[in-house]
């Protein structure tokens, strides 16, 4: 959260960008407040940020983390949100210290070959992370999911209730997920580009993992908690601090509609933690893989 010592035009940043989501420390609501986004734009436009090097003529750093994400850190700090950066990295060091850290912030990390091949299921501490923002800092006892729009009954549901089998039927699914950017390093060898851009995080082949997820099927949540969706409902929109996405609502008759609100996982990324250039040029990646097993 923003500190009381930081101001913009006489107002504290903590007042301009308040936390307001129960159970989620550091969550700033942007979607509902275009004026808040405009203030953030003005603040960022008033600052001078250092340019990150383009790895067009120099190799990637032989470090771990490979890239620091300095510009993204600077953006957060300018808005008084440095704590999001600090909490994210502290969580990584606690829960995922042995990954190959591609980008320190927003955190992106991949699994080494030995970690990936150690069993059919990927241990949670080795499961890759693909992020576009800070690692969520959740208070599980207070966290709520809000469902509104074209439903029969808008609701707020606590994480505790979602995990209670007496209130919602729990399901388990074994899923292998993979980032589409896996092996991007092979393309980056030809054009490394701007090394600190999130889209260019130097993924090797470790952005893949298999886990057993436990949670409530989405269609059960909509039926039990909301009494179903209205006839005119065509899509579900998932809203978070980062860009939103939408998907057609699950039909009770559609066997493929088994989307699960995962609240627990074995051998994979947890429900509160979501589911990149050259020394000639891919040598840095290969060396990291060799050095780490």
Automatic annotation (TrEMBL):
Biased composition (Basic and acidic residues): 280-293
Start and end residues of each Oxidoreductase molybdopterin-binding domain: 132-240
InterPro entries for this protein: OxRdtase_Mopterin-bd_dom (IPR000572), OxRdtase_Mopterin-bd_sf (IPR036374)
Annotated stretches, region: Disordered: 240-293
SUPFAM superfamilies xref list: Oxidoreductase molybdopterin-binding domain
Gene Ontology BP, a term: sulfur compound metabolic process
GO MF term set: heme binding; molybdopterin cofactor binding; sulfite oxidase activity
Pfam family, one: Oxidored_molyb
TM ranges: none
This protein's GO CC annotations: mitochondrion
Protein name per the record: Oxidoreductase molybdopterin-binding domain-containing protein
